[in-house]
Amino acid sequence: MPHTVRIKNTGLRGVTVADTKISFIDGDRGILIYRGFRIEDLAAHATFMEVAYLLLKGALPDNRELATFSDNVKRARGLPRHVEKSLKCCPQNAKPMDVLQASIPMLAMADPDFSSEDKDAHIRMATRLIARLPVVIAAWDRIRKGQDIIHPDDNLSHAENFLYMLHGSSPEQTMARALDVCLVLHADHTFNASTFASRQVASTRAHMYSAIAAAIGALSGSLHGGANTEVIKMLLELKNERNINRWVKSRLDKGERIMGMGHAVYKTTDPRATFLKKMAKELSELTGNQDLYNVSLRVEEAALQEFEKRGKSTIKPNVDFYSAPVYYMMGIPPDLMTAIFAMSRVAGWCAHVIEEKFGEAQGKPALYRPQADYVGEYCGLMGCTYKPRRKGN
Ligand code: COA
């Protein structure tokens, strides 16, 4: 019987629960690695298809492997008819992350591999999930706007095809590459809340789709992936604000958070944020959104100054701070931004589910089962003296 360790109210910070070969973060030095490759190198030289393959299979693909994997993803893009129909039944004001989460069991029902415990079947399921999440997201955005769904175009790359299905026209190459880089940057991040949720579900031997549905739920929260939507709302609200320093100070004085800042692991600059900041500048020049970019800079500067004064200089922009303006400049609606995060992170989630289920990093996997100290009332059993209170006593 393992001994009991009490680490309460810490959100499990600093607690190691597993071994992984998928990704690594050095939060003090701002380093992120996927399977041995620095994120900076992958963002500069790799495509999302290569990175998804790397995460799932453990090595970068050669040309033939990449062509086969990309073809498999393209071939899996079409949505099963009942999924398309069920999307059309969702209320128009449904949140994209709720619709996306609801689509996952629907997709499972159409997957011939979903109850298989075989590793190759899991890779095929991962391929279908990577292929279909963007199709669901774009379809839902069009359905809620009363527009016709645009079906995937097999001549287009993953990022190009998503923007095409969303906007109805093929994107400029700069935009498509920018989205592809965003997908690379968001694809994995060790044991963050949504990945841990997916691994926890996988540890019960539930199927891949159950684990991914749980991960989408966890990602939707504003302290996790939902932060990008909150960031863009804040930046748009502040576009006409003259005194951003005062706004930031007053927010912090009230105990409120500046969204897109701070991180549970990074205590220095998040390496993804550095990339996204440069991208935000380039896209602002390309799209004439310099105002938005300048507001981001001013909020960052004011927040860093305030955090410094308050002895919290380790709080810096995270991945969501500059990805929000980047997505906005791609024409992505604010409430769809977290779903874009999901369409990338699904590659990491699937890799983690496979690692968890097949014990690839740590031998035989165990069911996650932490404990809690019971601080509620007792019932009279086992010598307990609790007496139920009656109404009116
Ligand atoms: N704005 C203001 N204060 C912040 C802050 C932010 N963005 N992030 C952390 N803090 C403060 C907390 O208020 C807390 O202060 P206190 O000790 O005086 O109570 C302290 O820093 C520690 O925060 P805590 O939430 O306990 O721990 P953490 O550093 O692990 O927090 C986050 C990580 C992500 C939860 C937190 O930074 C946050 O809420 N950020 C905003 C949401 C966000 O962008 N999420 C996306 C993360 S990728």
Strand order of the largest sheet: 1-2-3
The global form is globular
The CATH topology of the largest domain is given as: Citrate Synthase, domain 1
* Ligands bound, unique: coenzyme A
Assembly state here?
single chain
Q: Whole-number radius of gyration?
A: 22 Å
Structural class: mainly alpha
**Secondary structure tally: strands:** 3
The mean pLDDT is 94
The CATH homologous superfamily of the largest domain corresponds to Citrate Synthase, domain 1
CATH class of the largest domain: Mainly Alpha
Give the end-to-end Cα distance, rounded to a whole number of Å. Answer: 43 Å
Number of helical elements: 16
Percent helix among the residues? 40-55%
What tags apply to this protein structure?
393 residues; mainly alpha; Citrate Synthase, domain 1; Cytochrome p450-Terp, domain 2; 2 domains; 16 helices; 55% helix; 3% strand; binds coenzyme A
Question: Layout of helices and strands, plus pairs?
Answer:
Elements (H helix, E strand, L loop, with lengths): L22 E4 L4 E4 L2 E2 H7 L2 H10 L5 H13 L5 H8 L7 H14 L9 H26 L13 H10 L5 H14 L6 H10 L5 H12 L7 H11 L6 H10 L17 H17 L2 H20 L9 H11 L7 H22 L35
Antiparallel strand pairs: 1-2, 2-3
Bound molecules: coenzyme A.
Describe the structure.
With 393 residues, the protein is mainly α. It folds into 2 domains: 23-225 and 334-358, Citrate Synthase, domain 1 (Orthogonal Bundle), CATH 1.10.580.10; 228-328, Cytochrome p450-Terp, domain 2, CATH 1.10.230.10. It contains 16 helices and 3 strands. A 3-stranded antiparallel sheet has the order 1-2-3. Strand 1 and strand 2 (31-34) form a beta hairpin. The longest helix has 26 residues, at 119-144. The radius of gyration is 22 Å and the shape is globular. The two termini are 43 Å apart. The mean pLDDT is 94. Coenzyme A binds at residues 223-224, 227, 252, 257-264, 312, 315, 318-320.
